[in-house]
Write a structure and sequence with these properties.
Elements lengths: L1 H10 L20 H4 L7 H8 L2 H15 L3 E4 L5 H15 L4 H15 L1 E11 L2 E10 L4 E3 L6 E4 L7 E3 L5 E5 L17 H9 L1 H10 L6 E3 L6 H17 L9 E3 L9 H18 L10 H41 L8 E4 L1 H19 L4 E2 H7 L11 E4 L7 E4 L5 H12 L2 E2 L5
Parallel strand pairs: 11-14
Antiparallel strand pairs: 1-10, 2-3, 2-7, 4-5, 5-6, 8-9, 12-13
Helix pairs in contact: 4-6, 4-10, 4-11
Length: 430
């Protein structure tokens, strides 16, 4: 069935595109940029990404921050049935070789287009229905019903007719949807004019860079000049502004005020646009505007908080989609469902780990004695058991770690090195 749906989607690529109007029975997308583009309008955002390496890199970074995080499937309770269900779901998701790519498609498509649609291809595994793969679908072929806000599919039979999608088939992520806009909001929507000026206004940049500014030609004519001659002089000045050359009569003069040129103007313009793009996608800036250490540190703290907030928001969006998939897996395979296992991206661990490291570093600088067991617990790292290899901090290269035998004489040197640099209580280690 999934293959048939995919063929239907592909068959529409050569069909005549639809147009949004007041007579359709679907909720129109509120994105003005893509609405005016007509045929295949979501592909315009693809063009923006394909044509701009900086913009593509910023969007990839925002997605990669989330997909690089570890995840778990948490059982609904300590009940054995719930634990077994969570383990089964975890095994199915872990065995999806392209699972990280699926996360990237879900989140990346949502950030790029406002919403992303994934077709779920199911298979029977040991008598249970399990997702075999997720196939990204073009958002051009989907709409939302204006009354129910349910997803609808563009029918192949009647090109302007929409039909409800099949159940358990399509996963949708909407980036910051609103009650009147289930399509979400594309990140690229607010970057369109910056991107357009950067790519299609370059000719004007070059003209400005050559002269430092758009000069104002000043034309002079004799008292006995005819109106036709004066008009000709005006046209010559206008011609110069657009084409950088002029044709005039000998008895007329045209002067140009001296201007200060700036050979780095083009570079500055591009840097300003890239900086604005970075601020919109990542919520960060590269400079604080102050030379003080406190100002730079404060800016760094704000940047970290904004980045953390964006990462949490994006991670929660992906979690909603995957948890919808898990809900379908449970409904299709288990008769009695009381509570559902949850897919959790461990974004909190990164935040807590950063805070823990900062606290431990501060304690070390202030000579506050902290046990190794406490430090390991704060960093959420298990201590080595007796007989296991441990990590050695090499004095010659403090940034390199080597595995050593715990019974070797070098262990004493490690403990002395740790005592010298970190005032921890080594006697409390296992």
């Amino acid at each position: 069935m999934a293959g048939d749906l995919l063929k239907r989607i592909q068959s529409l690529e050569s069909a005549e595109s639809f147009y949004l109007n007041a007579f359709t029975d679907t909720l129109a997308d509120t994105d003005k940029i893509i609405t005016i583009k007509g045929s295949g309008y979501f592909t315009y955002y693809d063009e923006m990404i394909d044509a701009d390496a900086v913009l593509a890199g910023l969007l990839d970074t925002r997605v990669d921050v989330v997909t690089a995080l570890s995840w778990i499937v948490e059982p609904a309770s300590d009940d054995k049935m719930h634990i077994d269900q969570a383990e089964w779901v975890n095994d199915i998701l872990s065995n999806l070789s392209q699972f990280k790519n699926y996360e990237e498609a879900i989140l990346g498509g949502g950030l790029r287009n406002g919403f992303s649609v994934q077709l779920v291809n199911w298979e029977l595994v040991d008598g249970k229905y399990a997702p075999l793969e997720l196939i990204s679908c073009s958002p051009d072929y989907f709409k939302f019903n204006p009354l129910t806000y349910e997803l609808e599919f563009k029918s192949n039979e009647l090109i302007y007719t929409w039909e409800p999608v099949d159940p358990y088939r399509f996963l949708v992520l909407s980036h910051r949807p609103r009650y009147s806009n289930p399509y979400g909001v594309s990140l690229l929507r607010s970057l369109f004019w910056l991107w357009w000026f950067k790519h299609y206004g370059f000719m004007w940049w070059m003209q400005a860079a050559e002269r430092g500014a758009v000069v104002t030609p000043v034309g002079s004519y004799d008292e006995d000049a005819t109106p036709e001659e004066v008009e000709t002089l005006k046209l010559a000045c206008k011609h110069f502004l657009g084409n950088k050359y002029i044709v005039k009569m000998d008895k007329h003069t045209i002067d140009f005020p001296a201007i200060k040129t700036d050979p780095t103007l083009t570079e500055k313009l591009i840097s300003m646009i890239n900086e604005d793009m970075r601020f919109r996608v990542e919520g960060s800036v590269l400079a604080s505007g102050t030379s003080s250490e406190g100002g730079t540190r404060a800016l760094g703290q704000v940047h970290d908080k904004r980045s953390q907030a964006r990462m949490e928001s994006d991670a929660k969006s992906v979690m909603v989609v995957i948890n919808q998939l898990i809900a379908w897996m449970m409904e299709l395979n288990f008769a009695q469902i009381t509570d559902l296992p949850k897919f959790i991206i461990q974004y909190e661990l990164q935040k807590e780990g950063q805070e823990a490291r900062a606290n431990l570093e501060t304690a070390a600088k202030l000579n506050i004695p902290i046990s190794i067991e406490t430090a390991a617990k704060e960093l959420q790292l298990p201590l080595a058991k007796k007989g296991e290899e441990i990590i050695k901090l090499s004095p010659a290269t403090p940034s390199m770690f080597d595995a050593v035998d715990p019974d070797a004489e070098e262990v004493d040197e490690i403990e002395e090195l740790l005592k010298k640099n970190f005032p921890f209580n080594l006697d409390e280690t296992s």
